[in-house]
Amino acid sequence: MRIDSSVTQFSLGVAFAAGFRFLVALWLVLSEVGGSIPLAMAADKTVLNVFLLAGQSNMAGADSEVAVPPGFQQTAADRVTRFTMAPLPDGEKAQQFVPWGEIKGHQAKNKLVHGPEVGFARALYAAGWRDVAIVKVHANFGRDVQSWPWGEGGALFEAWTKFVDARLAEITAQGHSTRVCGFVWHQGIDDAIHGKLASHYQRNLSDLIGVLRKRYAAEHVPFVLARSVNSRIAQPRPDPENNSPMALVRRAQVKVGESVPYAAWIDVDDLPNVNTHHFSADSQLVIGRRFGEAFLRLQQKAED
User: Fold this and answer.
1) How far is residue 281 from each of residues 94, 104, 119, measured CA to CA in Å?
2) Which run of H or of E encompasses 277?
3) 267 near 211, Cβ under 8 Å?
4) What's the pLDDT tens digit per position in 137-167?
5) pTM of this prediction?
6) What are the pLDDT digits (tens) for 29-73?
7) Based on C-alpha coordinates, what's the Rg of the chain?
8) Strands annotated E in 217-290
């Protein structure tokens, strides 16, 4: 059958004009309602499940050197999890700052290392969690501090929340929304080394949990912490009566995990240490998995 080309061209022109008028009308309606059309409008907005990880050297992954070769072996969980990290107080200005990207290890003292974020992300992925974003910070403080710097108003708290707020703003600017789903904490040896802060650890950490939940989430959002190992730096002499600052911190960590609603603690004493009180890359994978399993139990409890 022969088709008249002039009729076909006319029909296509009419259809194109109609389609163009429809798009213009749609743009005017959306502009009237929202003022402007976001660039990400064409894609569905993703709600990212954010986890805030914080602590000192063991959260950083100090001495958890990844063997090269073979190097960091990425899994599907590592590739789909968004990850950013920085030391405090410098945050994004620090040379070690890691902007948003996949989990693939990071540099520390010219070595490829990772902390518990790897095992944690993999545990969540195995349990069916998707659209996960992890914001990790780490810091140490000295014996000269007069008050707990991680507490509200402290220097590390201010740097931490500033870093987190900036990273969440970056996600929002990409057209996504966020919800903070949990907190992971590995810190305490600094308090034992400091000495005077050890006896206040339970109150300080309990107060911090309340502040973080109020600022970023809700009162039932899980908070998981690791009980610090018995560091020889913090406890150089035998302590048969368990009255040393290190013992005080360890007891306080257990009490927080057992008394604060929707909090839990994990044990890492069975894992071998490297360089006094740090962990290998393999042990960090185990620690991260335990963090993830504890979080999932608390999450289930919150939903029941």
Assistant:
1) 23, 13, 10
2) none
3) no
4) 999 999 999 999 999 999 999 999 999 999 9
5) 0.84
6) 333 333 332 322 224 579 999 999 999 999 999 999 998 889 999
7) 25
8) 223-226, 263-266, 273-274, 278-279
